[in-house]
């Protein structure tokens, strides 16, 4: 409208920043509508006849991008017990979850939210937060898939460590109740406050009795002090010919040939483009002394993983970077493909979305057709041990449920999720039922792998 000079015009300006997953206005009742697709009691159902794939074939199909000589170690670790199988069979559970109806309420999935993928993690300010710690399979997807994997892991881990089934049930119910309670709170919380929320050491230990908490606090402090680059240098390095080198422990930690050293050098050089200038300025004050190939975890065995020892040029202070190959998420066959053209970028971006604070050294790059992400090694990480947390499974599971709710609320619609979950214990009872049914399935799938190894159709290393 034209106005004469000096005229005053009153107007209301409403500028909205559009989200990539922007929801329609009627989505306020989206959670209730989702119950028509998947009744809450339906979360507890598992029908083996509907899975539509063979578990062993799904595991073996992951070989294509892995180092062939390391595959026997992978299968040895997976065959050790139903728990180690579960850790290595994220692809199997992804296919199974995808065979069931889902709510359609999306979040950034962790993708492998089993109970030991929660731990203490150092922030850039050197504070310890309790958080998710593994993001190799992260991808947007239905929120309940993370919840179901976490619930099942509590039962599988409980069986592994002699936890009474009723106690495992209480752990699953407590985890689910904590998730629901926190999600209801987040549904009424300003978005900024959700992103600032976190669980520190005190918040984690607050779930335990005072005596256990005091003992655990001392143990955490000791472990955190040791799990640094300086601690790793004392444990993993030796001086040979006047030069600090990484100590070998074949086949789990071995020096690599010239071609792989060149690969690692290319990764570190390319990685500079994905980190902020001030981080690269800091790293430029270090030189690479040594590189080894690592065998880590269960599910990651066979992927190219390298440990690079750096040394500060001025003081000789050691610093370790871990370089890890990234492939497609196990969920990409069933959901929308990642919007990132580099799977390392997918992992790092998912980590930043889900974690309350992320290692400032994380980044990614590609060399040829291989994608990689880079992170600091042993950044004061305190990783739980199944035998230790077994007697305190309910308390630990409660903290995990709170963390998972916060991660999902950051990336998804807390109001819709809370609306779907409702109140009462219906979802908790469904999670207990699903966890036991799928733990039984996991045992059958583990037995299938063991039989294939015994028949000689799947290679297996002895003394892994």
UniProtKB/TrEMBL annotation:
Residues 1-13 have a biased composition (Acidic residues). Residues 30-39 have a biased composition (Basic residues). Residues 1-49 are annotated as: Disordered. It comes from the Bacteria. Transmembrane segments: none annotated. InterPro entries: DUF2252. PANTHER family: DUF2252 DOMAIN-CONTAINING PROTEIN. This is DUF2252 domain-containing protein. The lineage of its organism: Bacteria, Bacillati, Actinomycetota, Actinomycetes, Mycobacteriales.
């Amino acid at each position: 409208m034209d106005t004469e000079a000096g005229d005053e015009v009153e107007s209301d300006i409403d500028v909205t920043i559009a989200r990539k997953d922007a929801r329609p206005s009627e989505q306020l009742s989206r959670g209730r509508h989702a119950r028509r697709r998947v009744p809450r009691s339906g979360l507890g159902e598992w029908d083996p006849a509907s899975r539509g794939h063979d578990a062993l074939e799904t595991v073996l199909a992951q070989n294509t991008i892995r180092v062939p000589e390391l595959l026997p170690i992978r299968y040895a670790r997976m065959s050790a017990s139903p728990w180690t199988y579960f850790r290595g069979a994220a692809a199997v559970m992804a296919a199974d979850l995808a065979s069931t109806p889902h709510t359609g309420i999306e979040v950034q999935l962790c993708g492998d939210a089993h109970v030991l993928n929660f731990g203490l993690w150092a922030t850039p300010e050197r504070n310890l937060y309790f958080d998710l710690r593994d993001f190799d399979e992260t991808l947007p997807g239905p929120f309940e898939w993370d919840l179901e994997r976490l619930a099942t892991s509590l039962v599988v881990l409980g069986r592994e460590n002699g936890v009474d089934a009723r106690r495992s049930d209480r752990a699953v119910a407590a985890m689910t109740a904590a998730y629901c309670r926190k999600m209801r709170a987040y549904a009424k919380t300003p978005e900024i406050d959700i992103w600032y929320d976190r669980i520190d050491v005190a918040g984690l230990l607050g779930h335990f009795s005072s005596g256990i908490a005091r003992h655990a606090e001392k143990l955490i402090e000791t472990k955190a002090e040791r799990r640094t680059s300086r601690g790793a240098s004392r444990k993993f390095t030796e001086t040979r010919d006047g030069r600090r080198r990484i100590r070998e422990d074949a086949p789990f930690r071995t020096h690599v040939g010239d071609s792989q050293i060149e690969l690692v050098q290319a990764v570190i050089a390319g990685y500079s483009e994905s980190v902020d200038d001030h981080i690269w300025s800091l790293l430029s004050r270090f030189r690479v002394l040594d590189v080894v190939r690592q065998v880590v975890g269960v599910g990651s065995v066979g992927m190219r993983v390298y440990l690079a020892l750096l040394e500060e040029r001025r003081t000789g202070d050691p610093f370790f970077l871990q370089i890890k190959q990234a492939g497609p998420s196990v969920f990409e066959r069933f959901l929308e493909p990642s919007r990132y053209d580099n799977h390392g970028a997918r992992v790092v971006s998912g980590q930043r979305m889900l974690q309350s604070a992320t290692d400032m050294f994380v980044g990614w790059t590609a060399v040829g057709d291989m994608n990689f992400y880079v992170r600091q090694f042993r950044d004061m990480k305190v990783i739980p041990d199944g035998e230790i947390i077994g007697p305190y499974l309910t308390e630990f599971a409660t903290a995990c449920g709170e963390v998972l709710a916060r991660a999902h609320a950051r990336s998804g619609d807390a109001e819709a999720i809370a609306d779907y979950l409702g109140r009462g214990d219906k979802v908790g009872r469904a999670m207990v039922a699903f966890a036991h049914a799928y733990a039984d399935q996991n045992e059958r799938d583990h037995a299938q792998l063991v039989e294939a190894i015994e028949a000689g159709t799947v290679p297996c290393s002895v003394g892994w």
